[in-house]
Amino acid sequence: MSKPKLPSSYVQRFMLEALDIRGAVVRLDDVWQALQQGRGYPPELARLLGEMSAVSAVIAGNLKQPGRLTFQIQGRGPVSLLVVDCTEELNLRGYAKAEGALHGSTLGELVGDGRLQLSLDIAGLDQPYQSLVPLEGDSIAEVFSHYLAQSEQQPAGLWLASNPIASAALFLQKLPGADRRDVDGWDRVHHLAQTVKPEELLGLPPETLLGRLFAEEDVRLFEPRPVIHHWPPDREKVSSMLQGLGEDEVRAVLQEHGEVVVHDDLSNHTYRFDRADVDALFHPPTLH
Q: Record's Gene Ontology CC terms (predicted)?
């Protein structure tokens, strides 16, 4: 029987069962390409967003309580903002912002003095859980490895890669009982994972990748979960937002610019409202 075809973008969790070490492989192909469409990101900015998109999919796919997860990196360098938003259905979108020429390749050089913010919106909670931490590390992988180790109080490893076609991640985490299984297991597996090459992350299916890295270990692969990018235009939501601003403010913008333009950075949609649209917003026609 042939194996089922992997989705174009997915999170596939796995377990090194004899060692009590869990992990995940992420590959974003069509989703990552959709996130770049029409953006014109310079290569270094695209790389950072691609890596952050992959690790956000890792974390969203491993949440104990399903919810909507948003990560933001804000900085004072040329790259001022990286944001990735992922629903519990692994519907992912993202946006990056930079000004001027980008010099350097490390996160510190590009973002400068920055911070990482997590927002987790879980159904039933009055307000989202939020966490704000300083950036510790010179790469997206280092920052999130540190964040995961601190938040879950267990050692973790993260390897990321991104190019214009795909972004990918390999994640490992030591579980509490690992040392009772094999006192050297975590160090051995972590050392093996450090040999992974970007082209392997971006080009090999999970079964091949993990078999190559951990040839002597018993790897259990779980069913892959598709990652999608489906954020169609929502003019009604934007209309409600403008109504919330109030007629005077909206008409002032209309008077100054001749139209009201709203751009949704995360979903990359532009909405335009002319005078007739604004009239209909605040004085809808009545039926007689």
A: cytoplasm
Determine the Cα angle at 41 with ends 37 and 45, to 5°. 130
Torsion of CA 26, 27, 33, 36, to 10 degrees: 30
CA distance 96 to 77: 13
User: What pLDDT, on the 0 to 100 scale, is given for residue 19?
Assistant: 93
CA distance 119 to 85: 9
Domains of the chain: 10-226 (3.55.30.10), 235-282 (3.90.1280.10)
Which residues does 97 contact at the CB level (< 8 Å), separation at least 6? 79, 80, 81, 82, 265
254 in Cβ contact with 275 (< 8 Å): yes
- CA-to-CA separations, 167 to 49, 145, 159, 264, in angstroms, rounded: 9, 17, 11, 23
Query: What percentage of the chain reaches a pLDDT higher than 70?
Result: 98
Claim: this prediction has a pTM higher than 0.70: yes
Backbone torsion region of residue 137, taken as left when φ is above 0, otherwise alpha when ψ lies between -120 and 50, otherwise beta: left
Cα 225 from Cα 90, distance rounded (Å): 8
